[in-house]
Q: What sequence folds into this?
């Protein structure tokens, strides 16, 4: 994850920061922020106002949570079920 973005998230959005500490989530968050803003994660963190930064971070985490709820997992029988985190 981008250091500047992650540090700003830790200072301003601590609850989301705790959830994003997982390394896989950090990578997904990086990609999602870049998709939403069209900028590199650190560049977005530098350019966004506090309100816009919060909106982008919250939207990115919400999108990640939604995707994770829809992840199919194969069971030992080979059938697919939805994963719930």
A:
């Amino acid at each position: 994850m981008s250091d500047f973005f992650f540090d700003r998230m830790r200072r301003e959005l601590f609850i989301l920061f705790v959830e994003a500490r997982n390394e896989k989530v950090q990578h997904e968050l990086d990609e999602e922020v870049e998709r939403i803003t069209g900028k590199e994660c650190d560049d977005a963190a530098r350019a966004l106002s506090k309100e816009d930064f919060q909106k982008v971070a919250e939207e990115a985490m919400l999108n990640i949570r939604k995707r994770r709820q829809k992840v199919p997992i194969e069971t030992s029988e080979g059938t697919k079920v939805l994963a719930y985190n």
Summary: Residues 50-69 form the longest helix (20 residues). The longest strand covers residues 72-74.
